[in-house]
Amino acid sequence: MTLVKVNNNGHKSLSSFVDEFFQGFPAGYNREEGLGFPPVNIHETADAYHLELSAPGRNKEDFKLSLDNGQLTVSFEKKEEKTTEEYKTVRKEFSFKSFKRSFNLDDRVNADGIQAKYENGVLKLLLPKKEQVKETVKQISIQ
Predict the structure, then answer these.
(1) Sheet with strand 63-68: strands edge to edge
(2) Which of 3, 18, 107, 141 is the residue whose CA sits 20 to 30 A from 117?
(3) % the chain with pLDDT above 70
(4) Which residues contact 54 (CB under 8 A, 6 or more apart)?
(5) How far apart are CA 112 and CA 104, in angstroms?
């Protein structure tokens, strides 16, 4: 069912014009995906950061993760699609684009303990924090 907005003065508002323009895009389309960047969620707990990158339809072997000078880079290179004469594509609404996203890591991240897992279209990274050394209170005597 389509909901139609009508102004009493007979003119469309700018927001309704924009809404109608973007109705033609596929569901789930957003600015980041349109530019080739998959959306990311970052959560923080007391002992780690949790990064979730939405990239459905890919294989875990296709991702490349690297850490260089405190910068974590997640990338995906699109492989050439094989064309076959047996069938022709009638409509194509999605494709897998190459992307590269980089994140500056906090000094508190333990780079040696970073773990990655790809499941259900989400690349999940665990970025554990370094253990904080608590400074003990020291009494200084006056002489």
Answers:
(1) 63-68, 71-76, 99-104
(2) 107
(3) 71
(4) 38, 39, 40, 41, 121, 122
(5) 16
Q: Round to whole Å and give the CA distance between 110 and 113.
A: 6
Contact call for residues 26 and 94 (beta carbons, < 8 A): yes
Distance CA 101, CA 59 (A): 17
- Among 13-17, 40-44, 54-58, 131-135, the minimum mean pLDDT is found in 13-17
Residues 6 or more apart whose CB falls under 8 angstroms from that of 107 comprise 70
DSSP 80-109: PPPP-TT---S--------EEEEEEPPTTB
Place of tokens 């508002």: 13
- 84 has a pLDDT exceeding 80: no
Report pLDDT digits (tens) over 24-33. Answer: 444 444 444 4
**Rounded to whole angstroms, what are the CA distances from 105 to 68, 118, 134?**
10, 20, 22
b/e burial code for range 106-136 (CB count within 10 A of at least 16 → b): eeebeeeebeeebeeeebebebbbeeeeeee
